[in-house]
Amino acid sequence: MDQQPFLGLSMSEMQRRGPGMHDSMRLLGVQFPEAMGLGVGMALYFLYDATPNPPVSPAAPLASAGASWAATSDGVDRISRLSDQILRNVVSRLPAKDAARTAALASRWRGLWRSVPLVLVDAHILPACIQPERMAPGGDDLSSRLVVAAASRALAAHPGPFRCVHLTWSHMASHRAEILRWLQLLADKGVQELAFINRPWPLDVPLPATIFRCTSLTHLHLGVWRFPDTASLPRATTFPHLRELVLSLVVMEDRDLAFLLDRSPVLEVLTIIASQTEVRLRLVSRTLRCVQLGICALADIKVVDAPRLERLFLWMTMDRGSEHELSHIKIGHAPNLRLLGHWQPEHHELEIGNTIIKAGTKVSASTTVLSVRILALEVQFEVRNDVKIVPCFLKCFPNVETLHIYSQDAEKPTGKLSLKFWQEAGHIECVQWHVKKLVLEEFHGKKSELAFLKFIAETAQILDKMVVVVATESFSSPDDVNAKMKPLTSAKWASKHCKLIVLKSSFSDGASPAWSFRIASDFSCSNPFDFFATDAELSRAIFM
Question: How far apart are the C-alpha atoms of 372 and 370, rounded to whole Å?
Fold first, then answer.
């Protein structure tokens, strides 16, 4: 029987992500992913991958330069002659263990490390001979106990503030008194950025409500916890400075999520990964700019009033319940929403204003979102009902300039739609007059995919670039790709200056697009949907 992990996806579904997933997990510290099932192991992989890199590193790239300087110097300690401000700046850029060691350099350095905002990463303070593990069968072990002891000493020794703290390697279910003390110290000493991730098992260790005392937080990543009941918290509870919140593998009630969002008045980024409970999200926020949900059972999202929301991302979300009821996504007031995806006809139902968008819905001013410029869809081109709603959906976003389509394998094909279907779909404003770039990923060379591409080629008047990323397992050679693409190259292209580029993808698994939660919430990245492998071209660019 196919094992069913908590995520609601079968093992066979998860295994479609390819044989390299276990190796990738181990690189991030998930030592025995097969012991807990690939579903949970995959969730942990993305949990750790979403954890930002700490601002310090135990690596010492300047060590050789320092040794060279010492060998040629006149023995005068010029560094200690620098001002206290400069020395504090130097110490603040070191890992906690190295910062403490500077006290042994000279009397001038002795108290400096206690006077600077410290960065504490639990993996950095272990003895070099110990290999820490984020997941291992049997719960607590030597590495976990050493991490707990070392972190406890460091938190107690430094008076604060703590600029950044990562506590991610401990089996916290075995050290509940210590973790309570940690949170008390972090609250008292003004922690600003905190990654607080329990090492399984179990997956539902109660998170102490003391977390709400950490009012200095600006960034918070919680992983593998049962969230505390917020009903008993004081009415004045708030995270007044919290700008980014990541909740991974968290058991959480709807009212507690609503409470958390309501009490975070400057929150800009919300990420929910592999929620252990069905997600219902109601967005009323004057500050939120990016919301992303991944590997979640999604009930509904209601964007009620989010005037600064720019990005709404859904990745590998699942419909709800045994009846496969569609996840409901309602877009209300979001005048700055520019990036939206990945929308899946199989799993998502879209409502704009008060109208649910279906095949045949007549588009009007009340059913359009004018601000969206980048749109991503996942389409099963051999499932008729999936494809039939796509034209109507595209009509709801008339100003889209970049369109990403991920071609999903159909487990149960129900028929193909030809070029005639697209031609008879009526005027699609964004396709004809606004789309400058089209990306189709996981191209298998099927006639239904070619029909869509040919429709775009013959309709899009200002298309600059069409990028086709091929599913490598569907083709035997570059010549095979060229043969399948021949009907497209012979089309009557509406744009005379469009460039057709055919690329090979390293992520061909047929299951879902490549994704990075960290990149998606990085506003310096203008288009996170472009996160796919383009390491090899199968044909040169063709100017039409």
Answer: 6
Q: Provide the token pair at 165.
A: 């703290």
Interstrand relation of 536-537 and 499-504 (parallel, antiparallel or unpaired):
antiparallel
Distance CA(311)–CA(153), nearest Å, equals 41
Q: Which residues pair with 407 in a beta bridge?
A: 379
CA 286 from centre of chain: 22
Query: Model-level pTM?
Result: 0.90
DSSP, residue by residue, 325-381: BPEEEEEEE-TT--EEEEE-TTTEEEEETTEE--TTPPP-GGG--TT--EEEEEE-T
Given this model, what pLDDT does residue 243 score? 98
Q: Which residues contact 212 (CB under 8 A, 6 or more apart)?
A: 228, 233, 237, 239
DSSP structure string for 47-92: HHHHSPPPS--S--TTHHHHHHHHHHS-S---GGGS-HHHHHHHHH
**C-alpha distance from residue 441 to each of 316, 377, 483 (Å):** 16, 10, 18
Which phi and psi (to 5°) does residue 61 adopt?
A: -65, -20
- Secondary structure percentages of the chain, helix, strand, coil, to 5: 35, 20, 45
Q: Three-state SS for 245?
A: strand
Q: What is the DSSP string of 14-33?
A: HHTT-TTHHHHHHHTTB--H
Segment among 16-25, 310-319, 473-482, 489-498 with least mean pLDDT: 16-25
- Report the pLDDT value the prediction gives residue 70, as an integer from 0 to 100: 47
Runs of H (alpha helix) within 158-224:
176-188
| Cβ pair 5, 37 in contact under 8 A | yes
